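Hey,

The postdoc asked me to send both predictions to you directly instead of through the lab channel. I've kept everything plain text so nothing gets mangled by the mail client. Protein one:
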Amino acid sequence: MKIWIDADATPRAVRDVLIKASTKRVIPMTMVANRSQQMPKTKWITLVVVPGGFDEADDYIADHCQAGDLVITQDIPLAARVVEVGAVAITPRGSQLDEETVRSRLSMRDFKEDLRASGVMTGGPPPFGPKDKQKFAAALDRLLTKMHKPR
């Protein structure tokens, strides 16, 4: 099992929770980003900096993750790709994305894109707050307890 983070779009508070979990449970973790990120010095956590092109980080994660891995992303198309290979995806707000939820979220995303293209303002998500961090940490703990087999 490995944890993959779509790091450019993941709030710092979520990255901090993931760093603690990776270190405590001794789970390899890779942060993938378009630019350098602050990283703790530990052998369990690596940073991959990809070129700044559109979806480069997403492509890297989708190409390298495997069944049984955990991917943290709020990018629904990326979640759809990793779920297809048997990885588990959760958002920084703690929602698990599986085949069914990914399909419904892709449909909603496409619908909202159509609304925006036609000039209707749909707004964005509310700001990330302490309750979101708490919800993410709880979801992560449940998933890691279920998925991770200590060595």
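Protein two:
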Amino acid sequence: MNPPLPVTDTREGARFQVRVTPRASRTAITGILGEGSEAVLKIALQVPPIEGRANAALIEFLADLLGVPRSRIEIAAGRHSRNKQVLVRGQTAAAVSRRIATHSEPSP
């Protein structure tokens, strides 16, 4: 079982940290790195980090995972880095945490 991911409520919505690994064999959540308030969600992306393709793939993946339109997902910091801060507009931290926890648990 993965440790909980710290998701913060803000006026705009829920924020959390992500570390992406581009050029992976498949796009998926691969775990949670670190513990406590420093924990980040690890996501593998099939696409290369060229011309914003990895950022677009991350937004699309998170929108599908969280059940929200792509327009509600914003990379608030780290657009040119593997470490990113993601904002999910109009969602609570509790709702985002629940959806991520459901999809990041290993299958039996």
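Summary for protein two, as requested: The helical segments are 53-66, 93-104.

Thanks,
C.
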